[in-house]
Amino acid sequence: MREKVYFSTQSVCDNETRHTRIGTTARTASLSNEDMALSCTFHKEQGLSLGLVFGSTEQQKRQMITKLKRIGRDQFHPMLMAGVIFELERTRLEECVDQLTDAFALNSAEVRPLDLDMGRDDMISYLKKCYRSRELGNEINALKRQLKKLIEETASFDEGLGLNETTGIRSEVNEDLERCEQHRQLKHAGRRIRGRLEEICDILDDHMDSCNVTIDNMSLTMQTLWNHFAQEDNRRNTKINRVNTQLAATNKKISQSMQDDSSQMKFIALLTMVFLPITTMAANQSIFSTELFSWDAGPGEAVVSRYLWVFIVISLALTTVVVGAWGLATRYASLRRKKADDQTKDPEKAF
Description:
By secondary structure, the chain is α+β, with helices and mostly antiparallel strands. The protein contains five helices and four strands; from the N terminus they run ββββααααα. Residues about 165-175 have low confidence and may be disordered.
């Protein structure tokens, strides 16, 4: 079964009776729960049209019967039933377009201000209306294509009747005046059918315009919302960048302060390393039982011991050893940290 609206005709001539039958099949879009299908056969010689409609509801049956009663003898035209089916499909599409237009009008800027802070549910509702507009537009275009085919087939059938309407003279195909009268009625019905089908096409064009307006308005609304969201994101990102800049400046100040403190601590440590051995030696004047200073020296006696150089040499030696050991320990710790960092960055180097 086809999912879209469909129409086709086929003419068959019986070789024995030389009678011509025209078969017509049509259906509406199966996307709707009210879809219908038609199979109709027109017996040209008898001027009789027989058809079956499948899937119609009770309301659709009543509508078709009312239309056929109002039409009268034009109901025997082979293209009439297909026109009736498409007329009902046009009515269904018109109701769908009206519902969609009304739903959009309730949310339009003319009814209430545009809510730029709409939630997820409102946005989904807008998108569903937009998708529905496109679906209706596709259904309308599909119906218009089949209506144009129906108009062409109706015109082709009327031309094949072979009747000169001006004089009323029957052609070689027509055998008697009664058949001429039937053909005249069929051609008159064909003109009315074509006129109505063209009106339906114009109506569908109006509905298509309504769908396009809805789609355009929906697209404009969604584009406005996306632009609003983008602006809000830019504002937030700008604020975040400013905060990050302030944090970076603060971290830089903290880093500089820590570097200054580290330099001062190193300087203090170095001073400690230098003066600690000297202070130790100065506090321990009895090293090697040597008194470096004699504060009670009499006239002509030296206050400073002649062995002061021993104190100086030992102090310098101890200072050199302590400072050197501190430097080696610091360098060794730095190398270990660097090696650990390299292993963290590239684990393969660890093996």
